[in-house]
Predict the 3D structure of the following.
Amino acid sequence: MTDSAESPLNTGLLLYLPYRAMEARVFEDIRAAGFTDMTLAQARVFQRIGPRGTRLTDLADQARVTKQTAAALVEALERCGYVHRTSDPTDARARLVHIAERGLEVAGIAARTVTDVAKEWRAHLGARRYEQLRNTLLALRDIVDPYQ
């Protein structure tokens, strides 16, 4: 189903395609750097870990997976040394997932790749159109991102 008579692709798909391309580039660069033990599913949970740690239930919600699936992915990431868990200082019953030293290496590679891709997109679209795109997407985020 489309949302425009001019295009056979709906806007949601048009938003997803660039994300998928960037995700593939990031994952390819991570693997090329020798981090071959992280799966794409693990990476999708990993990228949602906040700088002060994130609860497993929040990771599951943001990644749109069950708590059990998120737990299995986090356990695998922990076994590989990408994350570690600590007690949540605000709730003694809860634990926080943090990025470990090895995970910081992966995050650095991912950040560089994201920057490179953004530069390519900017060069392709031109500075004005790229900034318009970013500003439009930031405005759209106000109504679609409950995690901001």
About this structure: The longest strand covers residues 91-99. Residues 101-125 form the longest helix (25 residues). The two ends are 29 Å apart (CA to CA).
